[in-house]
Amino acid sequence: MPQAIRVRPWPDPIIDTIGHDPRSHYAEQFWLPTLGPTALLFMRHVAHRFDGLGDDGSFDLDVPGAAQALGLGPRLGVNSPLLRCFDRLTQFDLAHVDRDGTMSVRRTLPPVNRRHVKRLPPAIQVAHEEWMTRSDGPRQIAERRARHTAYVLAELGTDTAGIECTLLHLGFVPAVCRDAAVWAQARHHAVAQQADAEARHPSSQPAA
User: Fold this and answer.
1) Which residue(s) pair with 59 in the sheet?
2) Residue of 37 and 171 predicted with greater confidence
3) Domain for residue 204, yes or no?
């Protein structure tokens, strides 16, 4: 194993929209018994490194340093725990190594596949079913995130077409982009009008 590996994000518009941060409660409760502690800790380690690096957030991973940071010890041979961790991530389609030796790693974890859920202890299967029942579906999650982003853009002065274009670039589906852009502009104007009305109201004027 090399002493250093180039690591970069592996984007996916769908998984990045409906997925879960490796440091989330969902990951700890449902991915931990599915993926195993070493692989999940590595995903969390990489997520911390990705923070603040932007969309292209590539970095050089010091392999011995990462192994020691994860409590795996210095052994880096073909049977090392870290190499088995990489194989585990590849098996679950959470990472892959490109021809140039760069490792692409997902920023977010998808919902645990149904067939893997069935292999979990019964109590955790019930907890996962309850989680999915009380949580929004993928469409609702996408709409909520798109509206949040769209409203921020509207507050910054971006017009409807610009908001829609930005959301498309971020990977949201066209229907969600259009609805979010229109909603954000309407909400932005409503808030502005309310603020203007409150400023003009006599009760808001300072006493003489």
Assistant:
1) 7
2) 37
3) no
